[in-house]
Specification:
It contains two helices and six strands, in the order H-E-E-H-E-E-E-E. The chain is α+β, with helices and mostly antiparallel strands and 148 residues long.
Length: 148
């Protein structure tokens, strides 16, 4: 498999679809260890209509969701094909910090690394940057659903 993925390849790993797919491209993935992915933030995003009119700012929870989706893609990348695209559920979100607002025209870069992995549970550390500046960071735990 290639360590770079376009949106069509990403959709093989993740069950999310528009308007809730928060990553556009994977730049680099190292097995179940780390991933770098991007989200191009456009004024056409549906959440900008109400967050906030006249001063569009990407909701922080969606930045965290994007980091988690990147982490999910990293994890699924290392699994057998029959497990790819399963649902992954948050178990905990810790150490969340928001440093700067994300606005239309920004390119979010998600950096996620695996901290721990046990059977169907994972713990990951992530950071989101824009133009090299950290805009958000978090640690999260997730579990794979038994839906496939």
């Amino acid at each position: 498999m290639d360590d770079k993925m376009d949106i069509m390849s990403i959709m093989k790993f993740l069950p999310h679809r528009y308007p809730f797919l928060m990553i556009d491209r994977i730049i680099k993935v190292v097995g179940g260890k780390s991933i770098t992915a991007i989200k191009n933030v456009s004024i056409n995003e549906p959440f900008f209509q109400g967050h906030f009119p006249g001063t569009p700012v990407m909701p922080g929870v969606l930045i965290v969701e994007g980091m988690a989706q990147a982490g999910g893609a990293m994890y699924f990348y290392s699994l057998p094909e029959e497990k790819q695209g399963s649902l992954m559920y948050f178990m905990a979100i810790d150490k969340v910090k928001f440093r700067k607002p994300v606005i239309p025209g920004d390119q979010l870069v998600y950096h996620v690394e695996m901290l721990k992995q046990r059977s169907n549970a994972v713990k990951m550390k992530s950071m989101a940057t824009v133009d090299g500046a950290t805009v958000a960071e978090a640690e999260f735990m997730a579990t794979i659903g038994d839906n496939k």
